[in-house]
Amino acid sequence: MPFTFVEIEKRKSRAILFAFFFLILIYFLTAYLLLFAVENWFLRKEAVKVLIPSLEHALYALTGAVVVAIVHWLNSTDNLILKMTGAINAVSLDPWDLYHQYFQNIVDEVAIATGGKKIKPMVIPSSGMNAFALDDFEGHSIIGVTEGLLARLNRSQIEAVVAHEAAHIASGDCFTTTVLSSLSEIYGVSIEKLKEALIRGNRGSNRGIGLAVLIYMILVFTNFLSKMMRFFISREFETRADAIAVKLVRNPLSLAEALKLISRKWHSQSGASDSLQSIFIINPQPNQLDEKESLLADLFSTHPPIKKRVGMLLALAHLDEKSLEESLKNFIRVSPIAKPVFSMEDSFRPENRWLFMQDGVWKGPFSFDELVKMNGLIPTQWFKIEGKEEVGMAYDYPQLKELFEKDQQDFKGNCPNCKVGLDEFNYEGVPVLNCSYCGGYFVDHYKINRILVRQDNEPSEEIKHLAKIVADEKDKIMRRNYKNPQFILYCPVCKKCKMSRQFFVYSYPVEIDRCTACSGVWFDKTELEVLQYIHDNKETLLYRDSAF
Amino acid sequence: MVFILVLLFIVIAAAIWFFATYNSFIGLKLRVENAWSQIDVQLKRRHDLIPNLVETVKGYMSYEKDTLERVIKARSQAIDASNIKDKAQAENFLTQTLRSLFSVVEKYPDLKANQNVLQLQGELTSTENKISFARQYFNDEVQNYNTMIQTVPSIFVAGIANFQKKDFFEIEDASQKEPPQVKL
Q1: Is the ipTM of this complex over 0.90?
Q2: Please, how many CA atoms are within 13 Å of residue B179, restricted to the half-sphere of its CB?
Q3: Which of B129, B148, B178 to mutate against chain A (most A CBs within 10 Å)?
């Protein structure tokens, strides 16, 4: 790393100082202008002469500005990370989700390359593609990516993106952007609220409106000034982070690929407001200014042109634009989830018969099915296969293991159709409940979006056919459901609540059963796959007619 | 009189420069040691994971005792190695034996389906990535330190205070010299 910790700390305190004085300046200018306005328009008694507020008044304004700045500062920087992650809807990882485990591994690995900084990974449950980094006073750092990015990039690309974010944290400029974004975020929120209040309070007295308009104008002005805060956020931060990221993972091509892919397709906002754009790897709001190179752009834009960034990275890799296109064309994403492979041979093997030791004598032989029905067998009992001399504990035999694991598993709920216990199951890396008999899935409502984003499963022809039927018949089903809503199944988790049979949403017209209490969803066999297929191909399936 | 003053000035300036250089040597040395401890943590983690893997795999692989024994032997060699050079060699050997173990695992469908093995395999792969990142960081730091020892004028301070060059944590296997691209 080119920076020592001492240097970084120095940078940090300088950034804080700058930001704080800038804040005071903003408030002072605002107060002074207000004073100017009030003295000239509202309190004017004499003729045309323009009044300039006296020094005494200016001092009052300054004191007021300092007080407001301190309050604003304390308000914005208290619980910094919590506030920021809340503003962009980032959530902690689900420790049982395979994709999230995989992301955790990547972040841990890159953190080591920076010299062992503690970094907490988070995700934004959105199908857009972006990544962000946060850093606060106590040195808590966070790197987050969207679900869409996890599902669409391959490992080395995600690694490069994480390295870019880690570089922001390690070089200390992440801290600056975090504090500045948090400071300006408050304006965005208050302007929205005021707008609402103005629209609602339209019928009030003239004077009330006058006051509101005045405050609104002040806020617009301060908001403009807060945009000036980007003045401190240099575009160079991004280019420098790109360079350090290459030093960390030694793989410029992957970062170039990642930037290209993110900017090309999934340039989505992921719920971020205007003032938060600087914490992301690529500006979540497509911005004309970002793609320009001029003094104005240098001052007000937070991100350098993608083309320039990609060009720089390609120069490091000694490649040109064409070979990047080539490598993107041949880009095959390998699913990060190791799928258990079951061999056919295994399941058709002639069944062994087993003997087991009880009270010093061998009992049996029994078939596996007979063993299942017996009570009192323990994993540390001696077993042997009929006709063989080898002896082992029950847990030594993989086939016998199942005998005990079924009992130890804690009960998750019964299948609403088959009334037998549901098993934990990984569907595209997401932990869900599955019935091994009817093949249905129960998915918690907050996990469904994750499944929709991921695309590891190839849909079969049957699914495609079903999806087409579903898309064609949606209005018919809609009408039927509207006339008599159906409540057939009981929720496997809430036990006594009924689930209502309804469309997932109208734009994805797959019928599912949603619990009225926990809003968890029961998918019968194939319903989940059909939903996924419709989600991924909605243009061709649903909007066919509207094109003409 | 003036001569003495000038001499005094020179001596003081030289002393200040000497101590400043000495201190930056110490700073660099500490960073190298910190980087080494990063590697060490990951190596220990790998050593801890291996017995679990061997235990899980043992039941299935009655015909491949050789491979398992080689892994166990390589592990104990790696634990015993004392200096950096030996350690690097032993760890490289361990990596190779682990690879051959995983290629054997591929042949057993039962094993490939075993969740425990999959998880352990994933963890070992991730640890391996971490080791290579830690090694990269360590080597960078060693390079900074060695550069300072060998360049003028700091070479004089290094000579007086007896700072020694440090060894890199090297990989001999040519196939490993590529950027870490192990897929989980």
Answers
A1: no
A2: 16
A3: B129
